[in-house]
Amino acid sequence: MEEIKVFCPATIANVSCGFDVLGLALDSVGDEMIIRKTSEKGITITKISGQELPLETTKNVSGVAGLAFLEKSDFDGGFEIEIDKRIKPGSGIGSSAASSAGAVWAMNELLGKPFSNLELVQFAMQGEKLASDVAHADNVAPAIYGGFTLVRSYNPLDIVPIPTPNELFATVIHPQIEVKTSDSRKILKTNITLEKGIQQWGNVGGLIAGLFQNDYDLIGRSLQDHIVEPIRSILIPGFDKIKANAIHVGALGGGISGSGPSIFALSKGEKIAQKVAESMKETYKNIGIEFDIHVSKVNTQGVKRIS
Amino acid sequence: MEEIKVFCPATIANVSCGFDVLGLALDSVGDEMIIRKTSEKGITITKISGQELPLETTKNVSGVAGLAFLEKSDFDGGFEIEIDKRIKPGSGIGSSAASSAGAVWAMNELLGKPFSNLELVQFAMQGEKLASDVAHADNVAPAIYGGFTLVRSYNPLDIVPIPTPNELFATVIHPQIEVKTSDSRKILKTNITLEKGIQQWGNVGGLIAGLFQNDYDLIGRSLQDHIVEPIRSILIPGFDKIKANAIHVGALGGGISGSGPSIFALSKGEKIAQKVAESMKETYKNIGIEFDIHVSKVNTQGVKRIS
């Protein structure tokens, strides 16, 4: 195989209570990439459509992730990358992670899978570092593993795939305002109260237990973030209303997707997820904010080959 | 049924990463209690053997828990309580919780189970409040539900029973020094760094996932506490050695049981748990500290009727 075309899913990181550790992959939102083996060494980005992004290898997240891959590989050649960028950068649904994860997953396929998923996450994290100064894994891990993932530890890196209940759907609304990941990290406090910490790890435990048991109510009760959401939501106009209305029409719960500004809600079944979408649209129309909106099943496969 | 005799298990709270939220019940260590229906209203503690503890109802944790039970019950009479106290108070393996949980569980049986486990935990928490000023649930919940339990939230109280892998054994050593729960809470800091919080909820997620999947390695990797253990372990002579040696001979991991001074380790299989016990004994013999030691399967039943 000399060339592969892949779908690179958008992802929701943090998932309310799981700041920096939890993430999930989406099914109906993502980029497409073509990766091609070359005899020439190194990584060349030949084409980017959909968004204005740097073609220079060391300035593009997929280039940087690809270089990290090549450095550990014994492959003698290189790769060309074409990106059809459909996820808007800065939207909070893992735009950079999709490119980084998609690139290294595809390269691994082309070489006959020399690397494990865990190693691919490590390469892709280099792309994340370029994008946001922090090599976080909570978007690239679900993009590569699919479904829900837990980053149990960063040092050493330990990724735990978590099962996904079959009827779990996400609704994600992206208000057309920009919040940079690096900025939204800066406003966080470096200390938290032990009391809030206890609430948070109680909820993380509850969410994981709910996912294992298909206990949608428990999932809903656990989707609470007393630490990051109260601070970051200030940057997102209409956040409280969007969330309250989503829960009012039947969502299990919701919060900020990654570092925002996208807001997500999880629901049991597509029908409710669509109702949640209607409610979100309505809310932003009333406030007068432009938006994109997506309804998606949780994608349990991660990056996948489409041709 | 007019009288019931019950076994009231010792419990390990916190279980390393799960401060204030996780707990597990033991099988081979516990008190015995006899609870008897009386036509007279109120709670009378008629006999306590094994330890010097107050017979006065409002000063005894089982009395206080029993009064909380009676207050919500439409039962017209009362109860007599006899306690054979085998768990030493202040040992850190849920001595007060065993009495509180045992009393209300037995009363509930005698009246034909009018209350749910969740309600029983709420009554028993009143006993905990008497014992340590804080109505914590991380010992009484596993004592009543059995196995591992997660206190997802205190307000409202939300207890999640977590499945227990079949080969999971605990080794617990109790050095003969006294650490009061209230004192060992006072030395904790009210603030923690967000960074340590992230490590902690990553580990709680990992431990829950490990328990659901019978993944003993993941359980072991997740048994880490970067917040409370570094502070409280200072109060426990030989802690670092006991823990390191236990892991060296095969324990999955370990930590402080509750607020200490008992130290626990979890192992896969009784054989390793016994080896861990030998190693712990050896360590304390070398340091010259008197101790009790227990090896126990995790008790998945909680309080149980013995006659």
UniProtKB/TrEMBL annotation, chains A, B:
Matches recorded under SUPFAM superfamilies: GHMP Kinase, C-terminal domain, Ribosomal protein S5 domain 2-like
Catalytic activity: L-homoserine + ATP = O-phospho-L-homoserine + ADP + H(+)
Gene Ontology terms: cellular component: cytoplasm
Compartment(s) of residence: Cytoplasm
Gene3D superfamilies documented for this protein: 3.30.230.10, GHMP kinase, C-terminal domain
EC number: 2.7.1.39
Predominant cellular place of this UniProt entry's protein: cytoplasm
Family annotation (InterPro entries): GHMP_kinase_C_dom (IPR013750), GHMP_kinase_C_sf (IPR036554), GHMP_kinase_N_dom (IPR006204), Homoserine_kinase (IPR000870), Ribosomal_Su5_D2-typ_SF (IPR020568), Ribsml_uS5_D2-typ_fold_subgr (IPR014721)
Coiled-coil residue spans: none
Cytoplasm listed as a keyword: yes
Keywords: Amino-acid biosynthesis, ATP-binding, Cytoplasm, Kinase, Nucleotide-binding, Threonine biosynthesis, Transferase
GO biological process terms, semicolon-separated: threonine biosynthetic process
Pathway: Amino-acid biosynthesis; L-threonine biosynthesis; L-threonine from L-aspartate: step 4/5
Domain (GHMP kinase C-terminal): residue spans on this chain: 208-286
Record-stated family: Belongs to the GHMP kinase family. Homoserine kinase subfamily.
Free-text function comment from the UniProt entry: Catalyzes the ATP-dependent phosphorylation of L-homoserine to L-homoserine phosphate.
Protein name, UniProt field: Homoserine kinase
UniProt organism field: Flagellimonas eckloniae
Organism phylogeny: Bacteria, Pseudomonadati, Bacteroidota, Flavobacteriia, Flavobacteriales
